[in-house]
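Appendix C reproduces, verbatim, an entry submitted by the partner laboratory led by Prof. M.T., so that reviewers can inspect both the input and the predicted structure.
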Amino acid sequence: MRVLLINTSERTGGAAIACNRLMMALKKQGVRAKMLVRDKQTDRISVVALKPSIWLPIKFLWERFIIFVNNRLKRKGIFLVDIANVGTDITKMREFERADVIHLHWTNQGFLSLKVMERIVRSGKPVVITMHDMWYFTGICHYSSGCEKYKTLCEKCEQLGEGRSLTDLAKSVFEKKRKIYSQAHITFVGCSRWMADLAKQSRLTEGHTVVNIPNAIDMEVFRPTSKESAREALGVRLDKKVILFGAQRITDERKGFRYLVNACRLIKETNPELADKIVIMVVGGDSTKIQRQLPMEIKSIRYVREEQQMVNLYNAADLYVTPSLQDNLPNTIVEAMACGVPCVGFNVGGIPEMIDHKQNGYVAEMKNAKDFADGIEWTLTADYDTLSEAAHRKALEMYSEEAVAKKYMEVYDNACNGNV
């Protein structure tokens, strides 16, 4: 079986990482898998890129311009949505023609247009879509922020100038997606039960199959190693309590960094002895801009691409925190748990499916900085070996390459054989 996995980027972003890992997991199970991307960052032959063209960045800028104009020349929300009005036709590429299954992942930012998606669906090849966010079953938004219009008909998107755009982009795109999806049976995959359950409620997925399969991780790479060696490499003392926080763009409001700041301030006020022992490692874009906001010792590290470097960071940590306000199935939690690191996160999205409260971490009440602080304190003072072992065991059972690959192979077989 030949499977073509399609994603905008090869390595940048959570969807790219998950797609890459799935490709490797499938190949280990004997599946002939390839990735097709717009932005290629390595020289791997299993990853195919579009031909370089000056039009590729222009297409992305044109899409943003159309959104900007329709948003009455206001920037608010224009990077929270995608309208897929431009893209590159991949259906004539050899890799597409030879594939038995077309597996779409995150394809926005001018990579695939709605017209191209229609050509993909009309090709007759089985189509599988992994939903790394909500875009495939909403009108134009990646996360609906509580809006439930996607259940019936997206219109007057509240993320664009409070719905006062000149043209109703949400309604237009929603109706186009509905027409495209009606032309064939599609299998939608949610990386979390939360995402799959939301997708099942959308009018766009009516008559289609919606399943839940988590992201895969190589447990031979992401595994517990020597904490002493990891800290020595980073210059962090062994008697410190190390909290790790990371995001592609830390200042993104959805990542909830301000709740981590407030939680740390509460710990500093109520438990100064513990606060003095804490070192917070902040990894990602803009990490150097937020140092003064945290009332504890900070170690800023720019965005990390190399897996082994991330493994070192996780193994140096006592705790990974994720104060995200909306998230699907964060790769960072999977990675941390695979390395035996307990996690603290809010009760939102797919996070409570991953963190078992007070077993391998702590699930805090949504947007409650006090409870988040309590979770940090509880985890740092609990039996670390027990929490660490439970975290590693959960990752091994749920997210191993073999387990995830076999679930996708079943999806592919059903799609090829017309079993729904």
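The CA atoms of residues 209 and 333 lie 27 Å apart. Additional entries are available on request from the coordinating office.
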